[in-house]
Amino acid sequence: MSASDCISSVTSLSEVSDDLTLRFTVDLVAASRRNLGFLRLVSDSLWLHHKSTLIEAIRRYDQLWMPLIADLTTGSKPPMILPPLDIEWVWFCHTLNPSNYRHYCESRFLKLVGKPTIFDEENEEYALNRCRIIWEHRFPSEPFENEVESENHSSVYSEDLLDQVLKHRNLYTVFTEPYYSEMVYLVAAKQRYRGFIHMVHTFGDGCSCLVPTSDVLLMLLTHQSYPIEYAVDFKELEGAVEKIVRVRDAVKEQDVNETKMLWERIFDLPYEKAGGAAIARSISETPFYWDVTNIDVNTKYKSMAPRFLFEVRISGKLISNIKGIKRDSSQEFFRLRMAKCHRKLKMDKPISCFKSESWQKVWHLYCEFGTKGVILELRYRGGFCSKGSSVQDSISFSWNDLLRAPSLTLGKEIDGRVRIVASITPPVQASYLLKCVPDRVTADSGAMVSDVILKMNQYRPQEGRWLSRTILDHGGRECFVIRMRVGGGFWRRGGEAPTAVKWEDRIIQICEGSWSYVVGSTSIGRSPVQRKWLEQLHQKNR
Questions:
Q1: DSSP letters for 331-347
Q2: Assign residue 34 a region: left if phi > 0, alpha if psi is -120 to 50, beta otherwise?
Q3: Could you report the per-residue pLDDT of 224-258, keeping only the tens digit for each?
C-alpha cells in the first residue's frame, strides 16, 4: 500500500505545530540565524578552504578539541566554550552526518558529545575567550589559531572527514539571499520543517527518498548541528530521517515529484513556495544581485528612500473539472496585475495551465513592496468588443496580509473553480535604483536660466552656465541634482554671451535633495543647497 492510500484527510500545518509528539528541544529560529552568520563567515574566510589548512584543522579537531570538550562535558550538557573557527567548521560538518558522528563519539568517548547553545555575539565572544584560556593551559605547545602554512602538505588524518568538509565548502551558496536571516522567514521555515518531519515519519514509507526545500533544509542542517538535541528529538524517527536527501547528493526529478505529490496530498498546499524551492532547483542564479550588507547608506543620504524587494510565487489548482462549465474554457484566462504602480504590466495565463491533480506554478516574480499587492482576474475573451475581454471574477493578495499569514502563504478561491495560493519572502532592502534625466541649464546661483527667474530678480542678468541633471529614485522622486560648470560671464539678449570654461577649470557639484520650485510652476526652480562639490582636474590626454 502506498503512502498516498493511507491519507484519509487533509492536515493543516497549524495542526502539526500543535502536535506534542513533534517537539524540538533547541530554538531552531535563533540557532538558524546564528548558523547563517557562521556559514557566511566561513565562506568569506578564504584561508580556511586551503587543503593544508583543512588537514591541520581536522588534526586539531580530532586529537585536541574533541578529547577536550568530551572531558569537560558533565552529563549531557556541554560547557559554554567555543573552539577556533577552523575547528568549529570541521565540527559543524561532522555533525551533519548524525549516524557517523554518533558512532565516532561513542567509540572514542563512550557518549555523544554535544554542542553549547550560544546564539548571541556577546556570549560567543565570552565562550571563545574562555576556550582560549583553557586551551593554553591544557595545550601550551599548540597554538590556539590554525597557523599552518598554505604550502604545507601533511598527511591526511581522516579521509572521510576531509571529504565531508570539502563537500560542504560551498554550503553558504544555498542560503545567500538576505531574506533567509529575517525572523519572520525563519518562523515560517520552522513550521514547514515540522510539517516535513511529520510527513517523513507518518507517510514516508512509500518513498525511496524525500527531497527537502531550501527553507526546510536550513532547519534540518541547524537541527543536526546540535547532536544531543537532534538525537533526543528524533529518537523514534532515526530510520525514517535517513531517507531525506542530503546536501550535494544527486537528486532525480522523480524524487522531487514524489515528495511534492506526497506533501500536496497531506496538506493540500504547494510544496515549493517563495524562498523555498526544492534543493535540486534552488542553486540557481537570481535575476538580479542581492546586495547583502550591514550598512545602510540611507542613514547618510536622507533624500534617498529605501527600496524593498521580495520574491513572490503564485500557484493554482482546479477545484472541479472545467468541462461542466457552459462557457468556452479556451476563451478564459487569468490576468495578473499590480495593485499599485506599473499600470501597463499585464501577465496572462490560459486556464488550461491549471490541473485538478496537482498544484501548478503560474507566476514567479520579484516585486517591490511599494506595489502594495497583486490582483488576479479571471477574464473571458469576447466582451463588448471582439478584441477585448470581460472580467468574470477577481481576487487580490496584499503584501501586508501575506506577511501576517502563517508560513507567509495565503490561499483563495476564484469563481468557485480554481484555488490560488500566493507566497512571499520577507522584504529586504535592495540596491538603489537611480535614473539620471537632463534638466534646464542653471546659473552660478543654482537657479534655472529662465525668464521667470529674470523677472523675479528684476531682470538682473544670470551669471554663469551649468549643465544640470536630476537624479530620480525608483519611485520617481528627486533625490540629487548634479551640476557641471561649463560657462562664465553674463547672458543678455542680443548682447553679451557666456564664455566657455576650460576643461581643467570645470566644477562638478552634487546637491542632495530636490529642486525648490517657484510658486505657480512645476518646472522652474532652484537647486538644493550644495552638500559637497568636487573639482576634477582632467589632463588633456585623458
A1: GEEEEEEESSS-TT--E
A2: alpha
A3: 999 999 999 888 776 677 788 887 778 888 889 99
